[in-house]
């Protein structure tokens, strides 16, 4: 997954992603808009068709990040670095927005840049995502006791 993450890293340095970072900064204080973004990103990830297990793994982790953002905004989870949250929201904006380096209507290639960027985010922020997974698992375990 390193080469995919490397490509995602280079995407994170382009003007389109920098624009998404500025948009993410503006969204951070707007829970309703974050909710709409989460719904849009979730639907786009859910609709992406692939038989590749790597894609499924990336999607599962991004769904976890969507749950993390939801928990952050409803106040149940706050143990995340603000910069990580901001970058993650920018990645979701990039995934959810039709404005891409490669338009999503182009089969396979249209989702490739989204996947690369998600792979980079997952690789760079794995510790934050694992911390949330532990919290989420313990919350579910407590809720079922």
TrEMBL record:
InterPro entries: DUF1232. It comes from Rufibacter radiotolerans. It is a multi-pass membrane protein. Residues 87-120 form the DUF1232 domain. The keyword Transferase does not apply. It is found in: Endomembrane system. Its main location: membrane. The chain crosses the membrane at residues 80-99. This is DUF1232 domain-containing protein. It holds the Pfam family DUF1232.
